[in-house]
C-alpha cells in the first residue's frame, strides 16, 4: 500500500516540476480514440481572466497543441495490445508536440474501465492544539479504517470529501479553525492494478514521465457538470466507445464512480452484424444517419450501404433509416438500463438533486435526449465540456469531455490523501469495517 502512496506522491511532485517548466501533456487513452493536448502554464496575467468558476483553472493555462488519432490495442478502456497502443500514443504525442512546437517530458493520463470500486470511509480524532493544523488533517485521514481492497487492486483517488469539526459538518477545509474533535469522510476509488501498471509501462515506453493519473469518469464530471450541479449533486455519464463511466458529484467532490463495459462501439458492432457490412462502413452510417427515435418519415428515408465485395446485388443494397434505428435502439436502451442499475446501487435516489448529465462521444446519437429521460428520470441533459483557452474547435465536443476535465485536474488538482504527511505506519489495513455508503446518511 505504501508503495502506491509513494508513487502517487512522486507523481504529484513531478506535476509541480512540470508546471514550473511551463508545459505538460494531457493524454486520454480511450477505446476508439487517443487524444492529446499540450498545455502551457503562463500565469494569470498573460491573458484575460475569463474563468468559469473555482474548479476551472481557466486563467492559468492555454492549450497550445492538440491531436487525436484512432485508438489501437485498447478494449473496454484497457490496454489489450501493448505495442499497438504504444504506437498510437506516440503518434498522438508527437503530433501535439509538433503543433505546439515544444518538447514535452511529462504527461498526465486518464483511462476508463479497469473495474472501478468506490468506498466511503470515515475517521475521527481529537485536535491537538484546539486549532486544526495540517498534521491534524493528516492524522484524521490516517484514522480512517481501510477496507481490504484486495491484492490485485490499486487506489487511484483518495479524496477527503467532507470534514466535521465538533458539531459542524459540511466543512470543505477545516485548517485554521478552532475545535476539539475532527471527523472526516473519505472517498476511495480503486481499480485493477494490472491496468494501471500497463498504463505506466506504456507511457514509459513512449519516453515520457507519468505526472498523474485520473479516472476518465471523474475527469468528464469535472468538465461537463456546471458548478451548481457539482455543488448540489449530479451524476455524469461518460459514454465512450468501449465503456461507459459513471461518476456522482456532490459538494464539488466525486463521491461514487463505476463503469459499464458497453459503449458506442457496441452499437457499431450491432450495425455491422445486422447489415453484414464492415465496421468502418457501420461507423460512417451510424454517424451520418443513426438515431434512436423513429418517425413516420424514417420508413421512406433510404440509406445506400455501398460496399466493394464485387457482388453487384450485395453492394447496391439500401436500408431504411427506420431499420437502422431498430438495430441501434435496443443496444442504447441496454446501456441506459445498466447505467440506471448502477445509479440505484449507489443510492443515487437518496440525493436531493437528481440531475443526470450525459457526455462522451456516444452521447451524440440523435434522439438520445428523448430516450434517456424515459429510462433515467426527468432531469437529464446532454453535456458539453467547458470551454478552455486555445482549444481547437474540433476538440470542443462531448467526445473530449475527459480531455478537458483532465486539463482542469492538472491545473487545480483537488486535495488527495497523498498531499498530506500521513503517518506511514497507519497505512496497512488495521481493521476491516464494512465500507459504508455513508452519503446516504450524510447528505
The secondary-structure class comes to alpha+beta
- List the total number of helices: 13
Query: Biggest sheet, open or closed, and with what strands and sense?
Result: 5 strands, mixed
Strand composition percent? 25-35%
Strand order of the largest sheet: 3-2-1-6-11
Poorly predicted runs are 44-59, 425-443
Cα distance spanning the termini: 30 Å
- Into which percent range does the helicity of residues fall? 25-40%
What do the pLDDT scores average to?
Answer: 85
Verbal overview:
Helix 2 packs across helix 4 (193-205), helix 7 packs antiparallel against helix 10 and helix 10 runs parallel beside helix 11. This protein has helices spanning 2-21, 82-100, 134-142, 193-205, 216-224, 227-232, 264-275, 279-289, 312-315, 321-346, 368-376, 401-411, 439-442; strands at residues 23-29, 33-41, 61-70, 74-75, 78-79, 106-111, 117-126, 153-165, 168-171, 181-192, 209-215, 234-239, 244-250, 253-260, 302-304, 318-320, 355-359, 380-382. With 443 residues, it is an alpha+beta fold. The chain has a domain at 117-191 and 419-435: Dna Ligase, domain 1 (2-Layer Sandwich), CATH 3.30.1490. Helix content is 35%, strand content 26%. The strands form five sheets. Strands 3-2-1-6-11 form a five-stranded mixed β-sheet, with helices on both faces. It is built from 13 helices and 18 strands.
Amino acid at each position: 500500500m505504501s508503495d502506491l502512496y509513494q508513487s502517487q506522491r512522486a507523481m504529484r511532485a513531478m506535476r509541480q516540476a512540470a508546471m514550473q517548466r511551463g508545459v505538460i501533456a494531457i493524454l486520454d487513452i480511450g477505446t476508439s480514440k487517443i487524444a492529446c493536448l499540450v498545455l502551457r502554464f503562463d500565469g494569470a496575467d498573460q491573458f484575460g481572466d475569463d474563468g468559469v468558476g473555482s474548479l476551472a483553472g481557466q486563467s492559468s493555462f492555454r492549450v497550445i497543441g492538440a491531436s487525436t488519432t484512432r485508438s489501437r490495442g485498447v478494449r473496454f478502456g484497457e490496454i489489450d495490445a501493448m505495442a499497438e497502443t504504444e504506437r498510437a500514443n506516440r503518434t498522438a504525442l508527437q503530433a501535439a508536440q509538433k503543433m505546439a512546437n515544444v518538447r514535452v517530458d511529462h504527461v498526465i493520463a486518464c483511462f476508463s474501465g479497469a473495474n472501478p470500486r468506490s468506498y466511503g470511509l470515515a475517521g475521527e480524532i481529537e485536535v491537538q492544539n484546539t486549532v486544526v493544523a495540517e498534521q491534524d488533517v493528516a492524522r484524521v485521514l490516517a484514522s480512517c479504517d481501510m477496507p481490504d481492497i484486495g491484492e490485485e487492486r490499486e487506489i487511484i483517488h483518495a479524496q477527503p470529501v467532507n470534514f466535521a469539526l465538533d458539531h459542524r459538518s459540511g466543512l470543505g477545509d477545516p485548517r485554521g479553525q478552532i475545535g476539539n474533535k475532527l471527523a472526516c469522510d473519505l472517498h476511495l476509488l480503486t481499480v485493477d492494478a494490472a491496468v494501471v501498471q500497463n498504463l505506466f509501462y506504456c507511457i514509459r515506453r513512449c519516453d515520457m514521465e507519468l505526472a498523474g493519473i485520473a479516472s476518465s469518469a471523474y475527469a468528464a464530471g469535472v468538465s461537463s457538470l456546471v458548478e451548481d450541479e457539482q455543488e448540489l449533486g449530479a451524476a455524469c455519464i461518460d459514454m465512450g466507445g468501449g465503456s461507459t463511466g459513471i461518476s456522482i458529484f456532490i459538494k464539488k467532490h466525486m463521491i461514487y464512480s463505476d463503469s459499464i463495459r458497453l459503449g458506442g462501439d457496441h452499437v457499431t458492432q450491432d450495425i455491422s452484424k445486422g447489415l453484414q457490412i464492415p465496421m468502418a462502413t457501420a461507423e460512417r452510417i451510424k454517424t451520418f444517419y443513426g438515431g434512436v427515435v423513429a418517425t413516420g418519415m424514417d420508413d421512406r428515408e433510404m440509406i445506400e450501404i455501398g460496399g466493394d465485395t464485387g457482388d453487384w446485388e450485395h453492394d447496391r443494397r439500401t436500408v431504411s433509416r427506420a431499420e437502422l434505428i431498430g438495430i441501434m435502439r435496443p443496444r442504447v436502451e441496454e446501456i441506459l438500463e445498466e447505467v440506471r442499475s448502477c445509479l440505484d446501487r449507489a443510492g443515487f435516489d437518496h440525493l436531493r438533486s437528481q440531475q443526470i448529465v450525459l457526455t462522451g462521444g456516444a452521447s451524440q446519437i440523435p434522439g438520445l435526449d428523448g430516450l434517456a429521460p424515459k429510462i433515467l428520470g426527468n432531469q437529464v441533459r446532454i453535456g458539453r465540456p467547458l470551454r478552455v483557452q486555445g482549444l481547437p474547435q474540433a476538440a470542443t465536443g462531448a467526445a473530449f469531455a475527459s480531455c478537458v476535465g483532465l486539463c482542469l485536474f492538472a491545473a487545480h488538482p483537488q486535495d488527495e490523501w497523498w498531499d498530506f504527511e500521513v503517518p506511514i505506519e497507519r497505512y496497512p489495513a488495521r481493521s476491516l469495517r464494512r465500507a459504508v455508503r455513508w452519503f446516504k446518511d450524510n447528505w
